[in-house]
Design goal:
By secondary structure, the chain is of the alpha/beta class. The chain contains six helices and twelve strands. Helices cover 31% and strands 26% of the residues. Helix 2 runs parallel beside helix 3.
């Protein structure tokens, strides 16, 4: 089994030993029950990481480790960004969790016209914090050392600007009568940025589709079945990761 991952604010340079404390130390000592001689990975979540060996567990929340060499994880390409319309309830966290585990590089919350959920004021700040916390925990669980960026919530025009800069831009749209193409047959770039737009349960509005197409995006479908907004991004990302060679 691969070594568990723990997050630190920064990796110390030139220090042979390090004390993991606070919530991460408590999880390592009291939940994982790590003991001397076991391996762990420490990361800042932004690509820097180091393998370490447990020296001792002290009390309930202090893990003393011997650090190995600090490594900078290469940035993978093409970069995959998913624009995720805001789902209802906890389905947003589900989408973030599974997309993080799959390997998405960035997630952009989108307040689509047909979204029932709206992020406003304090409620919006709390929801964004939940998405970011979910990405952090899912990143650790999936043994990632570079966690996905969770952007501020975007409007349709801000999403259009993102699509205009992308090397490949797709709006997931299941309506075959609209003329959407299969994503499995799309010509994908081997570098640059791929942006996938996932609409709300009610679908992307005609006005939004027109705006995104004007920015250079095309409508694509995944298959014969219609996925929920909380699972479509994960399915599309998995397809793209496999076809671009990032899953190899």
């Amino acid at each position: 089994m691969t070594a568990p991952v723990f997050v630190v604010d920064e990796l110390p340079d030139g220090r042979p030993e390090f004390v993991l404390d606070g919530p991460e130390g408590r999880h390592a000592v009291s939940v994982k029950r790590l003991r001397a001689g076991e391996d762990v990975v420490l990361t800042d979540g932004a690509g820097r990481w180091a393998r370490a060996e447990v020296v001792a567990a002290e009390g309930r929340d202090r893990l003393v480790v011997r650090l190995g060499e600090t490594v900078e994880e290469p940035v993978e390409t093409p970069r995959i960004t998913v624009v995720q319309a805001l789902p209802k309830g906890d389905r947003g966290e589900l989408a973030v969790e599974t997309m993080t585990e799959t390997g998405v590089d960035a997630i952009v919350p989108w307040a689509a016209a047909r979204c029932i959920t709206q992020w406003k004021g304090e409620r919006g700040a709390k929801a964004l914090a939940k998405w970011r916390a979910t990405a952090r925990e899912a990143g650790k669980q999936s043994r990632r050392v570079r966690f996905p960026e969770i952007a501020e919530a975007s409007t349709a025009r801000q999403v259009a600007a993102l699509l205009a800069r992308a090397d490949f831009a797709a709006v997931l749209h299941e309506d075959r009568d609209y003329g959407s193409e299969p994503l499995a047959a799309a010509e994908l770039p081997v570098e640059g940025e791929i942006v996938l737009v996932v609409g709300p349960e009610g679908g992307v509005s005609p006005e939004e589709l027109a705006l995104f197409e004007e920015a250079g995006a095309k409508a694509y479908r995944l298959g014969r079945s219609v996925l929920r907004t909380s699972t479509a991004g994960t399915a599309a990302a998995a397809l793209v990761l496999g076809r671009t060679g990032r899953w190899s």
